[in-house]
User: Fold this.
Amino acid sequence: MSEPLCLSGVRVEHSAIGGARRAQIPATPPARAPAVAQTLVAWGLAGPAVFFLLVLFLLPVTGVFVIALSDWQFGARSLSFVGFANFREVFVDAGFRASLLNSVVYVLIVVPGSVILGLMIAVLIESGRSLRSFYRAIHFLPFMATLAAMAIAWEALLHPTIGFVNQALAVIGLPTANWLRDENTALPVLAIIGIWQNLGYAMVLFLAGLKSIPQDLYDAADVDGADLWLDRLCIVTLPMLGPVSMFVVIVVAVRAFEPFDAVKVLTQGGPGHASEMLLYTLYRESFEYLRTGFGAAVAVVFLAIVVTLTLVQARIMGNRVHYQ
Amino acid sequence: MSAFKSARRLSLPTTILRHAVLLCTGALILAPFVWMVSLSIKPASEIFRVSFSFWPERFYGIENYTKALTEVPLPRYMGNGVLVCAIILVLQILVCTPCAYVLAKLRFPGRDLLFSMVLIGLLLPHQVLSLPLFILSYQLDILNTYAALIFPYVISPFGIFLFRQFFKTIPDDVVHAARLDGLSELAIVWRIMLPMALPALIAFSIFSVVGHWNDLFWPLIAVRDQSLMPPPLGIMVFKNEEAGNDYGPLMAASTLVVMPLIIAFLAAQKWFVEGMTGGAVK
Assistant:
């Protein structure tokens, strides 16, 4: 019943170490040869993984820092280190400032929107017995649907003349807009698409959290006279979801710093810089304008944000919630 | 049993409210899907006329879908997507499983170092690595080939991590017994551990395939030829070429790109939820 938040993995881990320790106790000198053999076997089995981790992760991440701190350009045969010149250039750049600010605004809309709606929907689904997997499926659908294709569907929905949104608004007498071409609406519209995509993710995480709340607590609340569904929600459900909520907020925040597909397909960061966000800036500076130093510096800033959030998340997971 | 705890005393008005709210939010969530499918079966004359009807007066689905499949290399895009996702998945399993096994079951000098490398890989957002990976593929002279689409994803730190977690729950006695039977360590990985880790394998396969089928960022950098494009990139190019004049076929193409994953998801909902949330949900 409480798998998602339990510590079973950790318990097994201890017993596994214990088992290994038992095996190690008679490891007196005669057993050293097998130990060497096992080391060779282990590194042999892990060899391909070690090679690719070095070449595809550690080397490139070092490369990003080297490019960000140097004057290297595509095709250059040599480079010299220029300190933080690229970063100074990045932070005085109006486009990058707009991009960073937009990313923050986007996160501040998408995270509360996704988390609150996700929580509400999860609680509603869990509070009844009928149609559970049906509702869960519908709300989770956008999270795995190909966003590049769905962005095209959104564009049709938001089309200034033939789009459903403007047609509906016109019928009920509300003002219409050219949503993706207006600098006041482009970013909020992208944020709504972000909420549409991520709330199902928050929902399934909350559903797992809800399932792990012990029945005893609801029984105790009953004894204390919490008869109404709303009472039990406020006394038991929401307080017990505290740690899970922290986890969900950070996981969604990491995702909310990474929108790219919708920006690329729908607005290309425009109009002006109105909907430009970090990953799109990274892409455009690095691969369209070929400003490698600038692009790499943006990548380092982006990396710093995501790594900080992920480390906070790891701490929370390690201390309070144990998702396996 | 959790099904009972909060459902027990739901009164009739609350039940009605529950369905009312969930049906409303569900309808909003489905709106883009419904609009997409609706436009994909309408002729241009009806698309550009103000109307709320989902079903067209004149069914134009056959024409739109035929156009999507013939005038754009959509079957080619889909084929590229299947090919690239399949090769990536096979290579990831080949590279990650043995590494996960040694991390979970063997004791050797440098194990913690190896695990740290995996954790660093897990921490890095892949887009950050795109510039050096682009330079690397230029140096290897594989830009604009299938190899360029595949090579950055030959290894998945998440895969190693997930398999390691699962292998740790398999008792050591199983490994000892296999050794006594004379199996080599490599045979233990493929013939004992991986079959036992089937749930992790399925979850990881879904995670990997969904991620790479949907990826737009790296293909945009790695390939230029239409004949090499995976579906997200292909459909974006189609959209830019059409410039919004031929909505019917464009929506038909979008529907076809989204469809395979949606059908698979509806068929195996539980596995998808687990795979897509990185095993956080069981």
Remarks:
- Chain A has a mean pLDDT of 84.
- Residues 222 and 232 of chain A are 8 Å apart (CA to CA).
- The domain at 85-319 of chain A is CATH 1.10.3720.10 (MetI-like fold).
